[in-house]
Amino acid sequence: MTRHLRSLMDFSADDVSRVIDLAADVKRTPGAYATRLAGRSVAMIFAKQSTRTRISFEVGIHQLGGQALSLSTSGGTGMQMGRGETVEDTAKVLSRFVHAVVIRTFGQDQVDGLAAHGSIPIINALTDMFHPCQALADLLTLREKLGTTKGKKLVYVGAANNVSNSLMLAGPRAGMDVIVATPPSLPVNPEVLARAQADAKAAGTIVAFDHDPVRAVKDADAIYADTWVSMGEEEQAKELIAKLDGFRVTRKLMDATGKDALFLHCLPAHRGEEVDAEVMDGRWSVVFDEAENRLHAQKAVLLLLLGGASWS
Ligand code: CP
Ligand code: NVA
User: Most buried among 55, 135, 255, 268, by the most CB within 10 A?
Assistant: First the structure.
């Protein structure tokens, strides 16, 4: 059966644990995996900008011995998808040429559509709804820094978005509590919350939201921030920034954890907006290790989905 990473709902707790274990091993001994994707090609379609995701996937595929095709959906070298070729036809055609598709786009329906109509693994490299590759790298980072994710508490502070949605799904899969501190005017997606809370109940963890960041961060092991204005929301930037007043991660908020908490950020960051420079560049921050872990976590995902490593 072809497996995908459309969102973390595609991965069980055991799957996530396997990804993180394998990612750690890939990080430790990259040479052992250098030919695992020999003869394999991966199409990488980017309809939105990217630094970390595109480069880490391209380098990662190369490091596994495979071929990465960096594709866009616009401009003179863009795919026909950008001119209206259907997702269904694109999926069928790509399935004849390549062994997997990595896609960053707007609608989650495009990722789901490629998976439904193709016969190869589809990996979500960010949609408006989810960013599962980021969350897996975050779990690897938390495990490295805290020793384990089990029993830990992560508080996301800021705009409820694709990144916070994926963290809510990651928490129960890693034995971790996740609280999203967001203003009432920018609530968490109710469907994702319901699914994450059901998963949390089964796993014996907590997924919740709070409108008071100071209350939310009490006893947190890690605080997480993301941009207040996601890609595609540029026209609402002023409004979003106004609504998020009071949700900046400051030294005071780090201190309000009552712990020596970590600071994570998926990047790109906006110092002075969602996070103060003294936190972003301070002793709490693990953001560049976190960015590096995108490479290792994604290599693990590719290995597992393309058969270069076994799930058990
Ligand atoms: N964090 C992340 O996905 O970064 P890019 O947008 O640069 O890929
Ligand atoms: N929420 C951000 C994440 C960027 C990596 C966005 O969608 O733009």
Answer: 135
- Most ligand 1 atoms within 8 A of CB, residue of 102, 126, 231, 274 to mutate: 126
User: Are residue 153 and residue 279 in the same domain, yes or no?
Assistant: yes
**Which tens digit of pLDDT belongs to each residue from 213-237?**
999 999 999 999 999 999 999 999 9
pLDDT at 77: 85
Ligand 2 contact, 230 CB (< 6 A):
yes
Cβ–ligand 2 contact at 166 (below 6 Å)? no
107 and 187 assigned to the same domain:
no
Ligand nearest to the CA of 163: 2
Q: Kindly name the residue from 40, 54, 266, 296 that is annotated as catalytic.
A: 266
Same domain? 176 vs 88: no
Across the chain, the runs of DSSP E, i.e. the strands, are: 41-46, 67-72, 100-104, 122-124, 153-157, 177-181, 207-210, 222-225, 262-265
| Whether residue 142 sits in one domain with residue 286 | yes
Please write the tens of the pLDDT for every residue from 25-77.
Answer: 999 999 999 999 999 999 999 999 999 999 999 999 999 999 999 999 998 88
Q: From the CA of 156, which ligand is nearest?
A: 2
Number of domains in the chain: 2
Whether the pTM exceeds 0.90: the reply is yes
Q: Does 90 lie in the same domain as 24?
A: yes
Decide if 133 is catalytic.
no
CA-angle at 230, arms to 225 and 233, nearest 5°: 145
